[in-house]
Amino acid sequence: MDQTIPAHGYRPDLVVEDFTVPSDTPGISLHLRNKRASAQKTFSAERSILMVHGATYSSASLFDVPLGGRSFMDHLATQGFDVFALDARGYGGSTRPAEMDAPAQDSAPLVRTEVAVRDLASAVDYVLAHRGIPRLNLVAMSWGGSVAGAYTAGNNGKVARLALVAPLWLLNTPAPIDSGGALGGYRKVAVLDFRERWLAAAPEAARASLIPEGWFERWAEASLASDPLGNAERPRVMRAVNGPIQDIRDYWGAGKAYYDPNDIRVPVLLVHAEWDRDVPMATMQDLFSSLKRAPYKRWVEIGEGTHMVLLEKNRMQAFDAISQFLAERDP
User: Fold this and answer.
1) Which of 111, 115, 167 minimizes the C-alpha distance to 138?
2) 263-278 pLDDT per residue, tens
C-alpha cells in the first residue's frame, strides 16, 4: 500500500506530496516526492517527470533544496510539469538495507546499479498507474544517469524523453568519488567537508563566486537531515551505499559499459559543465556519439560549472535547457 503524506512549508502555488510505495523486495519501501502546480488537474505523459539522484545524495538533496528561493523541482512544477523524484533504497526517505545498521565492513557494497534499476522500474510503474498515463520523462544525474539509461534501454515504451545531467559513462581517468581501498557496504560522508572538493574542480579565481553565499550551508544541512542516524554522530555524517562505487570499478572504470546506448530509442538530452572532473568532457562526447538510435539527441555544455552544477550559480542554464527539451514538440 502506498501512503500519501502532505508536505508543509513549501510554496503555496504548488502541491507537494510524499509517497511511500513498495519495491520488489519485501520490507523495502521507496520514497517518492511529487510537486505540481496547484491549478493542475489533468496529467499527460509529455508533462510528467520522474527524477533520479546520483551515487551519494538523495533526490531531495539534489533536486528540492530551495536555493535562491527555488529548487529544481519548483522550477519544473511552475513550468507546468507533474514532477516526481525517487529515492532508491538506501537513500533519503526510502528504506535502508538492514546491513546499514551494522558496521560497514560486515557487508559487501550495497545497492548495486542493478538494484537501483529495479527500484526505478517500481517507481515508474507506480507513477504510470497513479496518473493513468502510458509513459513519462526521466531526468537523472550522475550515477542516476546510469540507472535511467539502463532502464530506458530495456523499457523504451515507458519513457517519452530522457534528460541526463553529467551521466556516468566510460572513464579514462580515476573516479574522484572512489578513494580506493576495500569497500564495505556503505561509507560515511562528512558533508560539511565536501565544499573543498567541490570547489577544487573550478579554477582558483572562480571558486569564491561559484556557490552563492549561504547556498552550501543550506544544501549541506538538508543532506545531513536525510540520514538521522548518521546525523546524530559527531562529527556529523551521512551514510551512503557503496554499490555505485563498486560498479565504477567493475564497469565504468574498467572500460565496460553497464548498458548499450544503442538500445535507447527515445530523444535524449545530455547536460554537462566544463569543470566537471567526475564526468570529463571526453566521457560525455563518447556517450553522445554512442546514442546512435535515439530519434534525436542534444548536448548542452554549460560554462563555469562543476559536477554539482544543479546547485551552483549557473544552475538556471541547466534548468532551462531541461524544461525546454521536455516541453518542445518532436521535430
Assistant:
1) 167
2) 999 999 999 999 999 9
- Its sign, for the CA torsion 95, 99, 103, 105, is negative
Q: Which residue has the cell 529548487?
A: 71
The three cell numbers locating residue 148: 535511467
The C-alpha cell that represents 59 in the structure block:
533526490
Q: How far apart are CA 60 and CA 81, in angstroms?
A: 17
For the chain, where are the alpha helices, taking DSSP H only?
Answer: 59-63, 72-78, 113-131, 143-154, 194-200, 207-210, 215-225, 228-231, 243-250, 281-290, 315-327
What tens digit of pLDDT does each residue of 37-55 get?
999 999 999 999 999 999 9
**Which residue ranges form the domains of the chain, and what is each CATH number?**
3-327 (3.40.50.1820)
Closest CA to 136 of 119, 118, 124, 153: 124
